[in-house]
Amino acid sequence: MYRGTAKERPATAEELFHKLFSNVSRLSELIGMNGLDPDFGLNRRMIWTWAALLVAIANVAFYLWKQRSDMVELVMVVPYACFVIQALHMMIKVLANHPNYKLLHAKSKQIFDMLNETSTSRKLMAESLQFGIVLQGFLAVMYTMAFIFIISMPLFIWCISGEKILLLMYRLPAVDDNTTHGFLETLALHVALLLVSLCGFVGIDCFFLALIIPIIAFNNQLTAHLYDIKWYLLPAGQAKHLVLMLERAQNAPTLTVGKFATFNMQFYDRIMRKIYSFVMLLATFLESA
């Protein structure tokens, strides 16, 4: 007799909450910079990460000095410098303030526990957390696609036309990337640098999402609860207060970016979509060139 397969039990809000932060821990652990680890300290992976960062810093410093008299070439180096400075800042911050990361995790857990008391709130919280996990996966896929494109395109061009063209400016000292051996060594350097940056930047973005998702869920729950109240049964004075509360919940205080955009999940999602579109446009352009 055929027996239907049992439906998989949907993950609870608590399981989804832990999954959000476990994704951050796994990514950060790959480069030895897991500030959420209670036993965080010096490790081998951290040494390799710092070595890769020092190579990137040396390359940027060299090109900034070399191209200081050529404004066009100097402008092309500036994005690399910004990238390296951001990476250096994040790593120093993790080393110097790693207890704060655990404190933020604990505070986020307190907010989650406070909002996860009733069955209705648990359902809303689970939906928000599930969206956060999907968004984390979307970020990882986008960064991975960019990584694959940067590494595979030089190999593709080399196999088709024999030209050795690298998309990144990072080079190894005393290595001629015009030779086959030097080209492959330089490409291996790019792989190492991109792997470190992939884990680091995706980890930071995922940590940001894990922190703000419970807060967003709280605002959504507050609006939903206020909307479901039978205001017409309340005294006139309380009904007026309810209207004010509902208006404040729908227009909650927000962070702005230069006073022209609200810094929230929708804005973050739009930015990531535009970056994805730009990468795809660049890939199409290079393929047709």
TrEMBL record:
<keyword id="KW-1133">Transmembrane helix</keyword>
<keyword id="KW-0812">Transmembrane</keyword>
<keyword id="KW-0552">Olfaction</keyword>
<keyword id="KW-1003">Cell membrane</keyword>
<feature type="transmembrane region" description="Helical">
    <location>
        <begin position="77"/>
        <end position="96"/>
    </location>
</feature>
<keyword id="KW-0716">Sensory transduction</keyword>
<dbReference type="GO" id="GO:0005886">
    <property type="term" value="C:plasma membrane"/>
</dbReference>
<feature type="transmembrane region" description="Helical">
    <location>
        <begin position="191"/>
        <end position="217"/>
    </location>
</feature>
<feature type="transmembrane region" description="Helical">
    <location>
        <begin position="47"/>
        <end position="65"/>
    </location>
</feature>
<dbReference type="GO" id="GO:0007608">
    <property type="term" value="P:sensory perception of smell"/>
</dbReference>
<protein>
    <recommendedName>
        <fullName>Odorant receptor</fullName>
    </recommendedName>
</protein>
<dbReference type="InterPro" id="IPR004117">
    <property type="entry name" value="7tm6_olfct_rcpt"/>
</dbReference>
<keyword id="KW-0472">Membrane</keyword>
<keyword id="KW-0807">Transducer</keyword>
<feature type="transmembrane region" description="Helical">
    <location>
        <begin position="133"/>
        <end position="161"/>
    </location>
</feature>
<dbReference type="GO" id="GO:0007165">
    <property type="term" value="P:signal transduction"/>
</dbReference>
<keyword id="KW-0675">Receptor</keyword>
